[in-house]
Amino acid sequence: MILRLARLCGNRQWNRGFTLIELLIVILIVGILAAVATPLYLGYIKDAKTAEAKAVAGSLWTAVQSNAIAKCDVATDVANAYGKAGLSSAGATTPQRWKVTGAQGAVTVACKDGAIGPDGDMFTIEGDASDVSFVKVKLTYSAAGKPPAKLQCDTGNGFADC
Description:
36% of the residues lie in helices and 21% in strands. By secondary structure, the chain is α+β, with helices and mostly antiparallel strands.
């Protein structure tokens, strides 16, 4: 059908293909798109890995508060909350991608007013697998802070609010 149409129109050059200039322009456009997209993609990957660590930190902080509230006015060790947070007794996830380091000894919740103490760094979640080894998330508590509990992230540039 196409051949008949080409004969009728007298155009016999329809099957010659692309010129070198057209191919070079397409390659140039694809190269520019790749150069722009690659850093964005790598940033998204880093953000996703940081979000994973933040989820582990949030889970542990919720478990720590739950344990401390259940035993109000009694100091409760952060490590006692590992099981509730889905961590092993050593403070690692399963599979072992994240681990708890620098856990503060004990947290106390006052029965009278619900105040949490002491202030300071509660714990740090560090990447334990090779693909997340550069990620650290630290939970810091300050009763006077707004909000009192803050996550700080470090992906190689030092800790900053995340």
